[in-house]
Amino acid sequence: MKKERSKKYRAIQTLRIISQSLFFILFFWLLVQTHFPGKDYIGNVEIFFHFNPLIALTTLIAARAVFASFVFAAFTIILTFVFGRFACGWVCPLGSIHQFFSFIFKKSRLLKPKKIKNKLPTLKYYILICILAGAVFSLNLVGIMDPFSLLYRSFAVAVFPVLNHTFSNIIGLLYQAEFYSVADPIAQFSTTLDINPVFAQAFFIGSLFLAVVLLNVYRERFWCRYLCPLGALLGLFSRWNILKLTIDPKKCIECNLCTIHCETQANPFPNDEWKSSECIYCFTCSAICPTNAIQFPIRPGPEKIEKIDLSRRKLILTSLVSVVAAPFFRLSPKSARASEKLIRPPGALPEKQFLEKCVKCGECMKVCPTNAIQPVLTEAGPEGLWTPMLVPEIGYCEYYCSLCTQVCPTGALRELTVPEKTQVKIGTSWINKNRCIPWKFGDPCIVCEEHCPVSPKAIKLIKIEVKTPEGEIKTPLAPVIDTELCIGCGICENKCPVVDKPAIYVTSVGESRSDKNQLKLDLISGSGGIY
Q1: What is the rounded CA–CA span in Å between residue 132 and residue 122?
Q2: How far apart are alpha carbons 228 and 52 in whole angstroms?
Q3: Which uninterrupted H or E stretch holds 12?
Q4: CATH number of the structural domain 339-507
Q5: Structural element, H or E, at residue 360
């Protein structure tokens, strides 16, 4: 039988690939631009997040506040109402990655498309319910599963550092081989990327991202089919779109190619089982149909379509589990007293409000010029997983920098000007006299005082007497901390010459954002939580 595949839909598929490529390039370019630009202020490199209705909705519910920038999310919802889940198939950069690797796996025969009949696509709707139910109780866990947060965090914390180390190794080999003409441009390009190379959880976060990608070996676009809560939300809005799949029964030969090769298990054949809420309008079905039987005419009127098959019992059970589980995320000692290591970036809201808004995207970690901002593991309890904190042993808070406050997409870090930021106290420095070189050995060292950026300096030098084991009396200048002037930037800890564990260190006590996490415990008001 002669094949009559549609040239129109094959051309549309090409346009879709171009669209996916352009949006992925835009995502990559914005991520690359999320670094110190050589001036005090950076552009809207976080703009992708503001078109995300899932983050907008969960932030609204969890924080009980409207963030003005999320007005763009309404644009995404309106277009989804009209054209269906086109954003998943034409725009989403994570969807493009899954599409690319699914194609690679199919070409290598690791993935063999086949007709599937299961209810796994409903799993993402239960995940969405869990996220929204948690948000009702101010538990904002959307950043763990949101595709934009997942992608940004994975690239910033794992993929880019891997690229950085790869470039370093290649450059080293080329210089050893004396291929200077090749090595110099690569070195310059690597420097231009300005990648932060060290993250405490890079292996863990990178492994999770790799696992998500490798799931495409099992099913094409596995994440989009079964796990993506943003796709589930857009699926709910897409049921009233104007593009309806139709199959001409006179042309259809019931070969099932459309269903076998459907990227998201929307089940094009038979026509009455097609799920518009699962369709991402990739037009694969119409492009591969050997008889050109599948069309997508515009039909603005209502039409009976297959509904999302959600069990009422499972819906109720999922909601109840979410309600019961929410308090367990807060059963942590960190809710009684602040962790000394939990130093939030400048501009951070009080802890409770901060956790309600932070979506764990990694933008602040990527933009930090000193690599100081790292993902939290246990320091903030389960609720605070992958939220940002300052780790002075890795980097320090640059005194004249407020970039992290400018790129936060949800306002969890309040935007600050540079003069405002220099007045923010994020913690306090302390000296361990048993490790400090002047205090312990009587030898001169003024490194911490030299680097202290505030004026007047928060680190003072006083003359002391130290008796050595040999009985000799030394009178070096030794550092002391003025806790009223110290802002907790951590440069003193970062630059301390004591190698293994710095003799001067920073804790979160005294931070400006909290009236509870201060030096002395308020015994009168009781222990109702430090935030």
Answers
A1: 16
A2: 13
A3: helix 7-32
A4: 3.30.70.20
A5: none
Largest CA distance in the chain: 105
User: Which phi and psi angles does 471 have, rounded to 5°?
Assistant: 90, 0
Token pair for 426: 């994020």
Tens digit of each residue's pLDDT (9 = 90 or more) over 233-278: 999 998 788 888 999 999 999 999 999 999 998 989 988 888 888 9
Q: What angle do CA 506, 510, 515 make, to 5 degrees?
A: 150
Q: Which of 108, 231, 189, 95 is nearest to 151 (CA)?
A: 95
The pair of three-digit structure tokens given for residue 33, joined into one six-digit string: 């631009």
Distances (CA, A) of 518 to 24, 235, 388, 513, 530: 45, 47, 21, 10, 9
Q: How confident is the model at residue 302 (pLDDT cuts 50, 70, 90)?
A: low
Unique residue bearing structure tokens 């989009």:
224
Rounded Cα distance between 36 and 222, Å, is 36
Give me the sign of the Cα torsion angle 29, 32, 35, 39: negative
Contact 83, 242 (CB under 8 A): yes
- Give the angle subtended at the CA of 373 by the CAs of 47 and 190, to the nearest 5°: 75
Judged by DSSP in three states, 249 sits in coil
| SS3 category, 474 | strand
Closest CA to 293 of 243, 242, 254: 254
Tell me: pLDDT of 190 over 90.
no
CA distance 409 to 95: 21
Residue 137 is classified by DSSP as: T
- Looking at the chain, the domain(s) classified CATH 3.30.70.20 span 339-507
What is the C-alpha separation between 478 and 443, in angstroms, rounded? Answer: 9
Q: State the Cα–Cα distance between residues 36 and 111, nearest whole angstrom.
A: 42
> Half-sphere exposure of residue 436, counting CA atoms within 13 Å on the CB side?
25
Q: DSSP secondary-structure letter at 274?
A: -
Q: Which two tokens stand for residue 255?
A: 């070969």
- Calpha distance 402→394 (Å, rounded): 18
Beta strand pairing call for 466-467 and 428-431: unpaired
Give the bridge partners for 88, in sequence order. Answer: none
Q: What share of the chain is helix, strand, coil (3-state, %, to 5)?
A: 45, 5, 45
CA neighbours within 13 Å on the CB side: how many for 494?
Answer: 18
Per-residue pLDDT of 170-189, as tens digits, reads: 999 999 988 888 888 888 88
